[in-house]
Structure prediction request, 325 residues.
Amino acid sequence: MILSIESSCDDSSIAITEIATKKLIYHKKISQELEHSKYGGVVPELASRLHAQALPAILSECAPWFDQLKAIAVTNEPGLGVTLIEGVTMAKALSISLSLPILPINHLKGHIYSLFIEKEALLPITVLLVSGGHTQLIEVDSYSQMETIATTMDDSYGESFDKVAKMMALGYPGGPLIEKLAETGDMARFTFTVPLWQSPLIAFSYSGLKNQVRLAVEANDPSTYPDIASAFQKTATEHLIQKLKKYFKSNPPKRFAIVGGASANLYLRERVSELLQPYKAALLLSEMQYCSDNAAMIGRAAIEAYSLDEGRSYSDIPINPRCKL
Ligand code: KG4
Ligand code: ZN
Prediction:
């Protein structure tokens, strides 16, 4: 079995996964959303202190499996430096006390393997990763062969929902709050320009849209917020759809997936599903409970890392807050 730890942002999570069967034996996650909500976003130092409380509390439930472990897996990149340290330090202590290697896991690979929790991987696959920190289009051939095709030039898709929610004083995380508010809104009442709609680039950008929404929020009273939320969600998603369409012209998809916290958005799921119909491409999605950050996806990715013999000594685990795939 592999014990996996996730602490790259505001979720403290530990899982135990059986290597041979990929079965999830244990999984627990303590989210800090409530604590960060009043600040409208994640406060890194507070997140770090909350991990220091939550991770040992979860780990204490894992002792019955310690003698069956072959490795400790931990998210070591990318993420918030001060919160990655919490998980990596715990992994190092476990590695020393149990004499086990550490499998350092890239958080983005974790999101991709959230598709395959308790399953065989279906590869190759084209993946749209939409989270609070990332908006990326990725061609995945194997665990060690992944190519980033497009990325964001500024904010990410999920982050733009967080920022719009903050403007409306709704709380954090903004994604589910804006999605809910948008349900009752009229998406045609406000019109925002789709980012980069005239650009031939296959890239993403959300800072301009965020500013358009800010002006609308400032100029209108709160009774219009559902309409603004609805028009914002439509435009933010239309941007993804336009760029995917452009990419598909020369790279028709056979198998496609959306992963990351924002892949829970039902409007996005619907729009991508429509886009894929003419290609007859399969759409893979993670279970709702595994879209946002969790240690089960880190454990599933770690099975691949283990089979590639990527285990390392506790003294050889770098922390890379800003790395790519
Ligand atoms: O993957 P994740 O848990 O953490 C990162 O790796 O960033 O993603 C969290 C992000 C937040 O920005 C959150 O607002 C967004 O995912 N999110 C959503 C939805 N649920 C979560 N964005 C849009 N619609 C949603 N339903
Ligand atoms: Zn994430």
Remarks:
- The radius of gyration is 20 Å.
